[in-house]
Each structure stands twice: as C-alpha cells, then as structure tokens.
Request: fold
Amino acid sequence: MKNFRGRKEKQASIAKERIEKLFSEAEDAFSKEPKLARRYVELARKISTRTNTRIPFALKRKFCKKCNAYLVPGKNARIRTKNKALIIACLECNGVSKLPLKNKAGKKAQTQKTQHL
Ligand SMILES: [Zn+2]
Reply:
C-alpha cells in the first residue's frame, strides 16, 4: 500500500511540473502567438483533469476558464480583488471568473522565472 501511494504522489508531482512548464511556455508564446499560448493552457488543463492534479493557485489566475486564453493583466485581462476574491475578467471572451483568495495559497502566488542553464 505504501508503495502505491508513493508512486501516485510522484506521478502527481510530475504532472504538476508539466503543468508549470506549459504555463511558462504559454507565457513565452503569448507575445508572439496568443493562439499558441491558448493551446498550452488547454494542454495543461488536460493534464490536470487526466491526472487529477490541481492547477496551482498562482497559475489559475493566468488563464480563462471559459475560453482557455492565457491571460495577461493589462493586455487581455483585468484582475481585481473584491471581498477576498480575485475577479478575473477575460477580454477575449468577456468571461468573468472568480477565485477565492485563501490565506494558505497566497504566499506562493509569485511565479519565478525558471532559469535555463
Ligand atoms: Zn475567456
């Protein structure tokens, strides 16, 4: 039983890594080709559903749940805070998503650029 759980956790962390990678690819692609960025978001979400891995909070605010667009505040998204929730307005499809702000998740919200060696 112990082994099984260990394997599952490992799988989850691989999935999480892949999701994070896809989002950083999306970030890179966004300025050149927004459509490609959307594709990366779609892939990341697929991995998330297939492997039952949650998309980290810091990344959840970076895409539109409705049209999968990669969102950049000031470009194609507007983000506001209201009553301890993030209100994310997607300017691509005019969809609005709400993300509850939890104290626990807040700290890790800063994404750091991965350094390529
Ligand atoms: Zn949208």
Remarks:
- Residues 105-112 have pLDDT under 50 and may be disordered.
